[in-house]
Amino acid sequence: MPEYLKEIRKETLARFNNLRLKLADAEDLIAEKACVYATGSFGRLEAGPSSDLDLFIVSETEEKEKHDKKVIERRLTGIDEICLKYHLVKAVDDSGIAPFDGSGKYLEVHEIDDFASKLGKREDDYHNTLTGRLLLLLESRPLLGLATYDSLLDNVIDAYFQDFKTNEDNFVPAFMVNDILRMWRTFAVNYELERRKPGNGFRIKNLKLKYSRMITCYSAVIYLLAQHIRAKTVKPEDVRVMVGLTPSERLEQVAANAIIPNEQEATRFTSLMADVLDDYSAFLKFTHGKKEEIEAEFDEKFAEWRENSYEFGRKFAEALTILGQSGDPLDGLYRIILI
Q1: Which of 31, 191, 243, 256 lies in the 20 to 30 Å Cα band around 21?
Q2: What is the pTM (predicted TM-score) of this model?
């Protein structure tokens, strides 16, 4: 493991656990009502000194009768929500973490069934449930309400595995992989919108797209592919294990455990995975510098960083190809990844 990546994981985990300690009152407030989970750099355990905290709040629901009608209501009441957000803002400030993006306007509350019930529907993008669901799977770390977090995770995984019971020995997680690829395309399309805004801020965002966003999505794709090649199936519990790993940890596990019969290809695959992690560690170290230093170096070495990002993608693509072609490339999960 690259040394900087190792250091930043340890440092971020310590900061995250310290934040959790400051939220003991908030934990009591939302017990059996809701959960809060982190995504972004804290979810991936790679937060820099100026990284902010990206959070999703999800409430349990219950059925009640009002005016002779049955209605579904959040267990996290409006007052609870206000108090929770107060605790979160204060704890973040006390921990020396950057303020919430948009002054906290993105701290919305979702209902526990939203992520599964809106899967594939037109409103999935509009209500931000696509992002909340996929980031739950790809880079989440529970901050509060672990029981609700586990229930939420079960709901989402079950929604993707509805056909599993009749295909346990040869289940291909096509639905989940297609949604992950949809998330990647959404990131890419959103970047194109940013690129059209005035100024040069889009260039750093382009770099983050080509490193952080790519590793978030494709670490899961390659992890699920490796599992399918190994066992000829993917089980719900395999996804739960995957969710518990950061994107870079997934790549480490795939590098160590992938089954590639051809010795030369296996050696090349291991080398590529090591290079990808080294390159990603160098990217993190660069982006964790002071803002003015990052901008100055990026302006000076823009062409070099652009080429490095392309090479990072090429290495990732080659590793994915080697792994995919080591199994039944046109009769399994790899075919679905391609088409």
Answers
A1: 243
A2: 0.94
